[in-house]
Amino acid sequence: MHRDRRTTPAALLLASLPLVAAQVEGTQNHARLVPVRALEPGDASVAEVARQGAIARLRNPECREVLNDFTDGKGRKLRENLQAFGLGPDEYLAMLPLLDGETRPLCKANQSQLLTTAGVPRVFVCKSFLETVYQRRAMAEVYVIHEMLHTLGLGENPPTSHDITQKVVKRCAP
Questions:
Q1: Per-residue pLDDT of the chain (174 residues; tens, 9 = 90+)
Q2: Other CB atoms closer than 10 Å to residue 137's CB: what's the count?
């Protein structure tokens, strides 16, 4: 019996994660390798509560429409970028790694709750996000969806971070 050896997009996503496991940060004159760490188990459990809520929201057809509201830098709808993975938005979000962001400058400066690089399938979690999960769970779920959009290629400015969040609220948490 012949086995189909084609690699699925989901398998490619999982296989690529070690390749994106390090990030270079720095200035024009010097760069440094910043290690990537998994979240501590307790923090991971809290972040997972928000992810599961976001996944539930993405199962609603109206919420899924947020993927048609935005495009990447090449003008492609985010839904098109997601189709390359062969997954629904809820399945894709379930596969994204949630990593410890505390060594990231924006987390250290308390300027962000979650961090993502456009087009890179990973999300860094800041301590402030964990507080939001406890205090404003619906907004924490919205923030997770917001970051998922960035992993699919959405940049910022334009649209502003505020505009992205407001569109997610309108579609997913009215």
A1: 444 444 444 444 444 444 444 444 444 545 567 789 999 999 999 999 999 999 999 999 999 999 999 999 999 999 999 999 999 999 999 999 999 999 999 999 999 999 999 999 999 999 999 999 999 999 999 999 999 999 999 999 999 999 999 999 999 999
A2: 13
Domain residue ranges of the chain, discontinuous segments joined by +: 37-172
Residue 135 tokens read as: 């205090």
Residue type, position 113, single letter = Q
HEC readout, the chain: CCCCCCCCHHHHHHHHHHHHCCEEEECCCCEEEECCEECCHHHHHHHHHHHHHHHHHHCCHHHHCHHHHCECCCCCEHHHHHHCCCCCHHHHHHHCCEEECCCCHHHHCCCCCEECCCCCCCEEECHHHHHHHHHCHHHHHHHHHHHHHHHCCCCCCCCCHHHHHHHHHHHHCC
Asked if 116 and 153 touch (Cβ cutoff 8 Å), the reply is no
Locate 6 and state its tokens: 């084609």
Rounded to 10 degrees, the C-alpha dihedral 77/81/82/84 comes to: 140
Amino acid occupying residue 3: R
Which one-letter amino acid corresponds to residue 151? T
pTM reported for the whole predicted model: 0.84
